[in-house]
Amino acid sequence: MRYVFHPEALNEYAEAAQYYTEQRVEVAQAFINAIEDTVDRIRESPTHYAAIEEDVRRCMARRFPYGVLYTIEPDYILILAVMHCSREPGYWKSRK
Questions:
Q1: DSSP strand pairing (3-5 vs 56-60)
Q2: Cβ-Cβ contacts under 8 Å for 12 (sequence gap 6 or more)
Q3: Sheet holding 3-5, edge to edge
């Protein structure tokens, strides 16, 4: 199934990758790989992950404290947030 990033989710992803790049390029690449793996797992089995609110589901990244929040739309998966686990819960709700 195809997927689309909400513009703010894409911005979060880019900012996090930039942060890790400033630490070490290898860590940034590992982060990107972890998020891409998370998106691939969602695409393979979108209904597998728990709904955290109404129709919003979350899949946790491996090795990094990030969750990918998404909804299943008729023709695609909408990624609402690439959320660090220490963020304020629910900050993404206006993106639905």
A1: unpaired
A2: 81, 82, 83
A3: 3-5, 77-84, 66-72, 56-60, 51-53
User: What are the Cα distances from residue 1, in Å, to 20, 63, 76, 94, 96?
Assistant: 29, 25, 6, 24, 19
Q: Which of 64, 74, 69, 65 is nearest to 52 (CA)?
A: 69
H helices of the chain, in order, are 7-23, 25-44
pLDDT in tens, 6-59: 999 999 999 999 999 999 999 999 999 999 999 999 999 999 999 999 899 999
From the candidate CATH numbers 3.40.630.30, 3.30.2310.20, 3.40.190.10, 1.10.10.60, the one assigned to the domain spanning 3-86: 3.30.2310.20
Whether the pLDDT of residue 92 is over 90: the answer is no
What confidence tens digit (pLDDT) does each residue in 67-88 have?
999 999 999 999 999 999 988 8
